[in-house]
Amino acid sequence: xxxxxxxxxxxxxxxxxxxxxxxxxxxxxxxxxxxxxxxxxxxxxxxxxxxxxxxxxxxxxxxxxxxxxxxxxxxxxxxxxxxxxxxxxxxxxxxxxxxxxxxxxxxxxxxxxxxxxxxxxxxxxxxxxxxxxxxxxxxxxxxxxxxxxxxxxxxxxxxxxxxxxxxxxxxxxxxxxxxxxxxxxxxxxxxxxxxxxxxxxxxxxxxxxxxxxxxxxxxxxxxxxxxxxxxxxxxxxxxxxxxxxxxxxxxxxxxxxxx
Length: 259
What we know:
8 strands; 44% helix; two-stranded antiparallel ribbon
């Protein structure tokens, strides 16, 4: 006869099973976790509250579920949640949109494009888009991508341009040729921000973006989308570019503090 397991061991086992399942998803709902683990929903809710309180998980109601948080790294090297920079950017991005209304997006490099990992579109009353989470954006035509390609180290930029030259995606084509593409990227670095290619739809809106820098590389990029008819370009550059650059510096500092 097998002796019954102590209640504390059972609770610990359930917590680890739940955390293991959570780690398999970018965002997981209570229903998804219930179906995957077989644990009662009430138990999952209780355990998730504990994991959130301890810093192992975060409840992101805007994306409809829970995600692993940075403290998971203390358990192993297998942290598969959003990069620390995305976690660090959330409060800064939300505060920006609350004050200035325009939506922000945080993008991270994903092979030869930038993928949007966080957005304040749900919090913006004037967003040109309905949703961009997990959208892949061109490094050559989109503001978030251009901000990455222009400010990343020269060796990385060269490698990415080589990869893009072999891509079949329509937006991955060089801007006429490599020389002119490099000239465009140099101009972006000099002005300190990137803009979406004006020929890319929707033409009724625009995006400006800046890099979030740390340890000599681009950790992520942050961009603000707006209706072209609502903002004069000079006002856009004078007012919002410095705000984005300041936000990027704050996010970089917050990301460093989380390490």
